[in-house]
Amino acid sequence: MRSHNPTLAMVLSIIFAGLGQLYNRRYAKGITFIIIEAAFLITFFEFLNIGYWGLFTLGEIPRVDHSIFLLIQGLISVIITVFAVAIYYLNVVDARNNAIDLKLGKEKPTVKEALKNFYDNGFPYFMVIPGLILLLFIVVLPLMFMVSLAFTDYNLYNTPPRALLSWVGFENFTSLVSIPLWKSTFVSVFAWTIVWTVCATTGQIALGLFLALLVNDPRIKYKRFIRTILILPWAVPAFVTILIFAAMFNDRFGAINRDILSTIGVALPWLTDPFYTKIAIIMIQTWLGFPFVFALFTGVLQSISKDWYEAADVDGGTRFQKFRFITMPHLLFATAPLLIMQYAGNFNNFNIIYLFNQGGPAVRGQNAGGSDILISWVYKLTFDTSNYNMAAAISIILGLIVAGFAFFQFRRTRSFKEEGNI
């Protein structure tokens, strides 16, 4: 078989799947590839044709073409095409490799040997495919749809099927920094989101660390009872706690103003003034988040060897030096990834913002509430004002910020650089 041509086998497989295998005298495999491609073309040709037409045009006749359905069909067509191209690529590579083996004089494997080779090398991939397909249609497709909406003019005044959507490029993103209403709102909400994330998360971490160090002190008695009490806020569902605090912080009849601050003649506008609303939700999040951090740090503190503290005492180390050079490095080494996720989680913490005061109070000259963060603003743009295009654009920015921050911090933490070492 020295005259066997791998290039010809590859070209035949490119022309139509399976022809290269037939040229290599792998008839069963060749017929299988031919049937797969023929079935694919018969089944999906019309679907893909309409899908790609709809993806590029988003429809041509109002009230007849539905831009959203055409967009979704187009995105599904892209996913199907990617799968088809992957299988086609495998077909071409297989034909070329088989042709090379024949040219080198290697014996053609029997059906039993081919099945065994597939089981040894391809079976794990074959088992992963159903989960991968499910992931694509449950996670990737909605993300692709959201990203696509950010580049259209889909809003309350331009809604299919009454009107057709159009691709507008980066117009929605430029509107966030050029149109005064959007610019002032975006800058204000983005700045508050950063402040909220840093203050609330740092507060709950600091409180959890302080209480963990306090309870871990050998002079403290009844440690189990104290730990149980401190964990209790974590046991209560967060939405219940938030609603209770919302009632307690009510300006007129809440317990904070009526029973506590009234004793010194003070009544603060917790729900009607943006500044006090922000203070309230930072305190509530500190209360909600510290039990997890407390439990996390408590476990790590108990794993630190007492010999190191004894050696520090011998060397004359102070309490602060022991905390700085022994306690804190071990705490951060073991918990840094989880602490980073605390920041990322609070950056998108929709529940407390919406349940406490629905992102209010209202702010003049903005289309977001005084305590809205990016994620709650996106919710309002989607369900209250139907600004789907702007909501999608902000969601992309939000996702890029969280992903970039998490990736950067995870790469820099020692837990990843020195994995497996202490």
UniProtKB/TrEMBL annotation:
Main function = Part of the ABC transporter complex MalEFGK involved in maltose/maltodextrin import. Probably responsible for the translocation of the substrate across the membrane.
Record localization: Cell membrane
* Gene3D superfamilies per record: MetI-like
Q: Which family does it belong to?
A: Belongs to the binding-protein-dependent transport system permease family. MalFG subfamily.
Any idea where the ABC transmembrane type-1 domain is?
A: 190-409
Under the heading InterPro entries, the entry gives: MetI-like, MetI-like_sf
Which UniProt keyword terms apply here? Cell membrane, Membrane, Sugar transport, Transmembrane, Transmembrane helix, Transport
Q: What is its main location?
A: membrane
Q: What protein am I looking at?
A: Maltose/maltodextrin transport system permease protein
User: PROSITE patterns this protein is in?
Assistant: ABC_TM1
User: What is the species listed in this Swiss-Prot or TrEMBL entry?
Assistant: Sutcliffiella horikoshii
Pfam families, per database record: BPD_transp_1
Report TM segments: 7-24, 30-56, 68-90, 125-151, 163-182, 194-216, 228-249, 279-304, 325-345, 388-408
What topology does it adopt in the membrane?
Multi-pass membrane protein
